[in-house]
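Quick one: structure for this chain?
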Amino acid sequence: MTALVVLLLFVVIALLAPLLTKVTGWGPISPDNAAINPDTGNQPYGSLGGISLTHLLGVEPGTGYDLFGRIVYGLRTSLLVGFASALLSTVAGVVAGLAAGYFGGWVDNLLSRIMDVMLAFPQLLFIIALTPVIQNALQTNSHGGTNEKLRLVVLIGNIALFSWAYTARLVRGQVLSLREREFVDAARIMSAGRRHILFRQLLPNLWAPILISFALAVPQNITTEAALSYLGVGVIPPSPDWGALLSDASQFFLQDPMYLFIPGVLLLILVLALNLLGDGIRDALDPRAQRG
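Got it. Here's what it folds into:
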């Protein structure tokens, strides 16, 4: 429940980012040159990275941009990529797992081999390799560069492409057990079609493992997105992102450790809350885990 409350707090902050930065006056988007000291290489005034009533989390060294504004807008990006890619990979995994487990034969063999190949891929390495290739093929904006929104869609698709096999393998195993149960035999005797058996008989009995898989995929995808942005192949400016923020902050760690500490701790709290929530959902929906 604590993890759920923390997650809801992050979601509310992300949804209210424009209100928090414009109406309340917290986290102004424009740079504040008065908050950085030109005599020290444009480092923030004060010992805590420029934290004040105007700048709740301080300012960025060199630019004077408010760190709170960058973080709340970057949170929207992280949650969007995490949930969207987890949803896509879960849907694809459920469809593949249902088909492999129910039809068996050459369908199961083909899909199982594809799952094995996808699970053997070093996910992060191949996303890093694919992203520049796709970026060069998507010269879509007026400046000859990659459109930021389209880049975000490609990033979501790449993460989902390399993560659907986990859900598919889980669903396949469950379907192999369920297809031999009495209620499936009864549906066949009553001349129920394959679509009815798949989506009306089997799928409703799979919602617990599917929900668990989705809940555990979200934090993993958020971490992957942050790592990609940290390495420079994720979300591109001017779109805000926590991974890119950590990459920039690592250059100023000795001069302004708060610049790295604050977004790093917030990312840790978000991922930890999502993982604990996923574990809680698994314990609540899996009676065997409780008995163990």
